[in-house]
Amino acid sequence: MASSDWIEVQRLAAEFQRAQLSSALQKLSERNCIEIVSKLIDLKLIDVFYTNDGKEYITLEQLSREICDELYLHGGRISLTDLVPILNISYHAIESRAQNISQTKPEIHLVSGQLIDDDHLDHIAEEINENLQQTGQITVVELTKQYELPMEFILQQIRKRLGTIIQGQQDKYDHHVFFTEGFLARNRARIRGALSAITVPTSVSAIIAQNKLPERLFFAVADELISTKRIQASLSGGRQANVATFIPDVHSRSQNEWIDNFLKQNGYLEYAALTRLGLGDPKSFCRKRFRETSLLYLSSCCVGSYILQQIEAAVEEALVSQSWVEVLPLLPSVFDEEDAEQIIQHVLKNSQNLPGKDALVIGHSAVTSNAYVQNLRLIFKPMIEEKASEVVASGDYLQALADQRNAKEKSFKPEQSNEKKDRKDERRKKANEGKLGGGTQGRETKTRATKKKYQKGKNDSDDEGEEEFVGGSSSASTELQFMSLDKISNVLRKQESLSDAPDEFVEDIAQRLYPSLQSSFQEAARLAFEAVLSATSGQRRQTHSELQNKVQLLLQNIKQGEKAIQFFASLDIQQQLSRHLLKTAGSELVNELVSYVSQDTNVANDSKDLSLEARQKIINGLPQNIRVPLQGLHKASQGSIIEEFLSEADVALTACDVVLRKADKKKDKTIPIQQRHMLIEQLNAAQDAALVLHVAVLLLFHTVTQTVLNASGRFVPYIISFLQSHLPQSIGELLSELQGLVIQELTSKGDEELLETVRQKMENLIPRVREAAVAYKKSIAITQE
Fold it and tell me: Where does the record place the E3 UFM1-protein ligase 1-like domain (predicted)?
């Protein structure tokens, strides 16, 4: 070194010594230092971390060096949470530097909040290899639990050291399993020996359990042995030990040979038999084994073409000959009804020779033709005609028609009442709405009710539609039945072609025939009824004409009786006579109408013998359009108001389609004469004194008033009282005397002598009364007051 340089060094050393020995002229406080550092950090001129106590700063590089030093001191593995108290730095700062270290240094790894270097991983690999060599097999799951590291991380590190530090190999089918070559060789030999000794299908789970083999290794070794033809066998059921089965080829060959021979000889294969042979899925086996053979796969077996051809021939013969065939007896005993039904459907669908449209499957296993079923209908044709004639002749057909009408009307009434109620509610609602005005100045308005006659057409049409609908549902329950299903079945069993048919087949045929037979019977009954009506139409017209004449005569008598009653001044007498008139002539008229219209319901009756109860019962059975008017007429005949009765009679005659002839004035003039002659004949024929007096009084009343009075014997005193002022005194005394004798006869029945005297006097007096009643004539009849 030159002298000049040495001198310069000494000078600098002296200056440095002076600087050290001299005191500072200006000093920075701790607070100023903190502010300066903070400002530098904000300006990003420096990058440092605070310590947890805030008294020190540390740079990033220093923190990284200290973390690496601690990792080395802890044997290559340390948790980030353990570094926080050691370095007195926050977890966030340590974590960020740890990530930087793991990225910049490949030999250091950040895993699950821990720093681990390769030296530590090599040490773990050595432990794993030692364990593997001892046990022969190890799994990643076990290592994960042991070393508390992620499974994928351990798997990755093992793969890196496989063949170097770790002496073993990885399972091809399970990458989380590793084993040694010795372990593989030992188990391969054991598996090869176990499989070589098996001659029958055996469950893989049984093989593994008995020989204590590793399940994962078994399938890999077995597949290798089978693929290299070292073991002549196959595995079925997948790669799960509980469902997989080991099947030796020696067994498969004998099994396949037996299956092929059975199918060839019998034409079918039963799934249950294949299951007993050890096949887990027989149907799939058959589909795979007989891929090129046409088989029909059923629920319990599969069928070959031989049996299908036999069934097709039997069905074709039955259809061509219009007979029937039961397929189930033609099949082997292992077939059930469901199999038979599937075979029939297959044959009918795929056969080119069968007229499929005409085929009819009965039950599950019987086949026939529609033509055969239709031919069976011909058996019942004579029975239908005979039964139709019987129901028409007995009146059951007419009664059924009446029941149908009644059922239709009863079911219609509730709907009609509900409809009326709905209409009433609607009208009330509209009326309420009409009373509400619009806006703040709305005024009350009234809604005018629409007259019913303007709504009649619409409502009637709706009611008719509802009536038809209800009638359709109730007619089936009230119509006559031709024959029950049991009887139809009994008739069919008597036929030679069905003598050996099963009961189910016959009953099914009966059910199919029942609707058409019932329809034919109804049509036959209708035609028979129309024939009867046509034969009796002439007699019906004659009866109608007689009814017209009789009703017209009865109405004339009632009107004449009404005029006659008006001659009596007492209202009580008038009411009694009116009640008697309606009870006699009125009831007779009602009986005539009821007897006439009841012929439609086939109720035999005599109009003269109908009681009130019998007449009411017949009226209740009539259609509504006739029943309601006749009900009103029947009720009026029990009263005492003749005008009401005549009004109801007009309505009833219209409902019964009885039109009265126009009045004949010439004929009307002869009516009083006829009535007088009729009374005279009754008087001459009468022998009893009371009857002679009754008829004589009526004859004299007719002569005086020119009207016919319909009165019973109890009204004779009132009639005589009326006639006293209109007859000569002599005739009046005769009537009074005979009246007294009649009363005396009734009151003195115990005195025979007095009775004899009274009867003697009556016998002498009767001719005189007859003569007086017949001979009396009045030129001018009195008028009603």
Answer: 544-662
Q: Which helix (H) or strand (E) holds 170?
A: strand 169-170
**Weakly modelled stretches of the chain, pLDDT under 50:** 431, 433-476, 601-608, 779-785
* Overall pTM surpassing 0.85 (yes/no): no
> Tokens 């086939």 belong to which residue?
602
Which residue type occupies 101? I
Closest to 518 measured CA to CA, from 474, 488, 493: 488
Cα-to-chain-centroid distance, residue 395: 39
Class for the domain spanning 181-250: mainly alpha
Distance from C-alpha of 402 to C-alpha of 603, rounded to nearest angstrom: 11
Q: What is the dihedral of CA 260, 261, 266, 270, to 10 degrees?
A: -50
Q: Which residues fall within 8 angstroms of residue 354, CB to CB, at 6 or more apart?
A: 312, 315, 316, 319, 347, 348
Of 735, 761, 759, nearest in space to 749 by CA: 759
| Cα 128 versus chain centre, distance | 72
For the chain, the helix, strand and coil percentages under 3-state DSSP, each to the nearest 5: 70, 5, 25
- Residues for the chain: how many in total? 785
Q: How many CB atoms lie within 10 A of CB 668?
A: 10
Identify the bridge partners of residue 117 per DSSP, sorted by sequence position. Answer: 108
Q: What is the pLDDT of residues 482-532, one digit of tens each?
A: 888 888 888 887 877 777 777 778 888 888 888 888 888 888 888 887 777
